[in-house]
Amino acid sequence: MNTFYLYTTIFHLIVSIISCQQIATLEKDKVLAELRIMKHDQMEVNQNKTQEKTMKTMTNTVSVHNSTVLQTQSKETQFSSLSTTTEQTATMRKSSLSEKGKSGKGQSVTFDITSSGASALTSKATDSPSLLSRKVQGLRGRISIKKLIKVKLLDNETALKLETGQMSMEEVQAYIAQFVSKPTSIAGVYDESNKKTMSFTEASEKGLIAKTYAIEFLEAQAATGCIVDPSTGETHSAEDALEKGIISEDLKEKLTDAEKAACGYAHGGKMLSVFQAMEERILDRHRGKKMIEAQIATGGIIHPVIGIRVPLSVALENGLLNQITYQTIYDPVSNPKGFYNPETGQRAYYCELLKMCVYDIISGVYLLPFGGKQGANPTPDSVQGRLSVINTFNGVEMSAFEAFKGNHIDKKTYLFLSRQQTEWQETSVTDSNGSPLHILTDLKSGRQLCIETALRLRILESSELTKYRSGLLSIYELADLLNSRKVVFKITHCPIAGLWDVASRKRLSILKGHQLNLVDRLTALRILEAQACTGGICDPALGERVGIAEANQKGLLTDSFAQLLKQFEQAYNGFIHPQTGKNLAVAQAMQENLLSRDVGMKCLEYQLFTGGLINPKTHERMTVDEAVLGCLIDKATASQLKDEKSFSKSFTCPKTKKKINFNEVMAKGVFDGHTGFMLLEATKPQSTGCTGAFQYIWSYRHI
């Protein structure tokens, strides 16, 4: 009985345990099922949040795009069209992103090109090439848009226009054309005697120029991007030029080394620019500055990584150059002139030689003239009408403006040639009546043109002035247009109007020449006296003559000079007798003791050698005998005027530094085709202090 009870108890216990296990299993399954449901619900919530966040991001992107388009379009129809296009693009990008997320393929590349940083344009890498990886043609290969943006050659605004389709790749190529076009290096020599083009190698072999000069010019070509064939205008690397026979084998090593200035100097796993190579002491500083000067003269510093010329600001920002080095490029002390004029043997900077070049419209290259006209000292007339464009096929020569108007050269080449010879700028002044005047001034030659005068003389149309004001006509075109229409005759009855600085090829007023130490004070005063007593102070820039007061206002005189010239101005307008009120001529004023004899005789001399004595009432010129008959001069004074020996040599020639009289001064004048005035050639005196000191020391040591 007890045994049966025991078994029964054990059986119930086992059944209870099994039941508990089943219940536990059921509870466990139930809990797991509930957990699965909760996890599924949580995943749905997270997925919904992710989708909402994605939609919000895309909506913001569309909003930013729409805002940008709204700012760049002026018409509602254009805005509507661009807005719709942007929304469709955003939808397509969202779909593409979703599909790529599912497949696990594709990456997104983000590049912030907004100035505020509040929004970014994202370029998705699809099966077609990315926008930033698209390339344009450079100097020595193709360059990606990404690199152009990285070095800041393309700004954010341009990149934004490219991204939104407002600018095409062709427009980008045109935008950077000035940085990737053929360098304006000197390609060869132009023999003016037989009108033939030669490479530097050929000119050297024929003995026309020294071989060292030829090598320097070829190295400059290589350092600015390429070796140029002057007969065809084609550009080559040093290796290609050797294969085509443009250079000889012995020059290959030198030119390949010079090419590093454009391709970069390999150092420490990086490609360095010329300046950076100088800083790392792997390039001689003098040689490096010589290359930098050539690059600047031919279009700009070359970025070695992307192989493209960049503006000065970009070069400084990217560390391709520093401000101190740039400021000393044309300092003759820290950077002596590194090239030579093949004809004269004189040292010169590359930019100075480039200004002497002519442009060949057949091959499209710049050639250095040799022989003939280049050796003579340039006159004001020859500089103004310089023929800088040639046709080597038929030997025709023309000015840059003539070539441009005849469609022989494009506007870019015309502007480059014009900037080599001139530097025009516009300023506003007021005349003696307070009326505004707009003056075009060539800072290089000293010429000036007045827009109001041109309108009054009808050599400028109002429509042309409107084009200039709107930017359709450059200041160089306007100046050349006015100069081409001017008819200039020699101005008679006028003394020397100014100076012609032979070295700088620039016309100067007498005062400016004195301030630059081109003429001594006494000679300057004598010339100004002659101007004042024959019709007014001369402005050699504009071709005008003005009174002393206006000349002082325009900077043609100082106060001290103006004070000394008052009596000479009266010699032209007449002396008013204090008692009778009569207007007296010079000799009459001398007799009435209104004018000293010394000053009076100088006035009569100036008037006589500029065309005759002046009647102050009519300003007519007359001979000495006619003046005697008209009672404007007495016979004794007239007799003294006829004796040329009585004229003192009170002038110093600003060129030869010899003493001369006023008649000899007039004979030395050179004609200025810009104004019709006569100018006096001037040069700065050569310093002899160092020579004297050397001679003193030498003499002392050899006593």
How would you describe what is shown here?
It comes from Clupea harengus. InterPro entries: Plakin (IPR043197), Plakin_repeat_sf (IPR035915), Plectin_repeat (IPR001101). Keywords: Cell junction, Cell membrane, Coiled coil, Membrane, Phosphoprotein, Repeat, Signal. With 703 residues, the protein is α+β, with helices and mostly antiparallel strands. Among the domains are: 186-376, beta-hairpin-alpha-hairpin repeat (Alpha-Beta Complex); 423-485, Double Stranded RNA Binding Domain, CATH 3.30.160; 498-682, beta-hairpin-alpha-hairpin repeat. 48% of the residues lie in helices and 15% in strands. A 6-stranded mixed beta sheet has the order 6-5-16-15-17-18. A 4-stranded mixed beta sheet has the order 23-22-33-32. A 3-stranded antiparallel beta sheet has the order 19-20-21. The longest helix has 71 residues, at 2-72. The model is unreliable at 15-28, 44-129 and 687-703 (pLDDT under 50).
The chain-level mean pLDDT equals: 79
**CATH fold-level name of the domain at 186-376:** beta-hairpin-alpha-hairpin repeat
**Structural class, please?**
alpha+beta
Rg measurement, Å: 41 Å
Task: Give the topology.
Layout: H1 2-72, H2 76-103, E1 108-111, E2 121-124, E3 135-137, E4 142-144, H3 145-150, H4 156-163, H5 169-175, H6 177-180, E5 186-191, E6 196-198, H7 200-205, H8 211-223, E7 227-228, E8 235-236, H9 238-243, H10 252-263, E9 265-267, E10 270-272, H11 274-279, H12 285-297, E11 301-303, E12 308-310, H13 312-317, H14 323-327, E13 339-340, E14 347-348, H15 350-356, E15 358-360, E16 365-370, H16 380-384, E17 389-391, E18 396-398, H17 400-405, H18 411-421, E19 424-430, E20 436-442, E21 448-450, H19 451-456, H20 462-469, H21 475-485, E22 498-501, E23 506-508, H22 510-515, H23 521-532, E24 537-539, E25 544-546, H24 548-554, H25 559-564, H26 566-573, E26 575-576, E27 583-584, H27 586-591, H28 597-608, E28 613-614, E29 621-622, H29 624-629, H30 635-642, E30 651-652, E31 659-660, H31 662-667, E32 670-671, E33 678-682, H32 689-701
Parallel strand pairs: 5-16, 15-17, 22-33
Antiparallel strand pairs: 1-2, 3-4, 5-6, 7-8, 9-10, 11-12, 13-14, 15-16, 17-18, 19-20, 20-21, 22-23, 24-25, 26-27, 28-29, 30-31, 32-33
Helix pairs in contact: 1-2, 8-10
